[in-house]
Write a structure and sequence with these properties.
Mean pLDDT: 94
Strand content: under 5%
Number of domains: 1
Shape: globular
Largest sheet: none
Number of helices: 4
Helix content: 55-70%
Order of helices and strands: HHHH
């Protein structure tokens, strides 16, 4: 489990925005925290999995995909802002995220 810092918040936001800008062939400034991942960006669940792998490597996370899946079913993510919040929770709590 990691202590979330302001620097980490900014890094997570930056990685997510850059990822979606590249994957969706858009400029970063066209994407906001209110952007709907599916409706506005044509995102899909494979993108989410790719992001999870990026953050697992970046922060040496020890979390199972099925744990993230169980959490996501109960706490669905629709916007970039919600995705940022979820990713920060995953970094902070790892496998204990289901206890929240």
């Amino acid at each position: 489990m990691a202590q979330i810092t302001d620097k980490m918040r900014e890094e997570v936001k930056e990685v997510i925005l850059e990822f979606f800008a590249e994957e969706c062939e858009m400029e970063i400034d066209e994407i906001s925290e209110n952007s709907n991942i599916i409706g506005d960006l044509d995102g899909d669940s494979l993108m989410f999995l790719e992001l999870i792998e990026i953050f697992k490597k970046k922060y040496s996370l020890n979390i199972e995909l099925k744990t993230i899946g169980k959490y996501a079913v109960k706490n669905p993510v629709k916007t970039i802002g919600e995705l940022i919040k979820m990713q920060l929770l995953i970094i902070e709590h790892e496998n204990s995220i289901l206890d929240l």
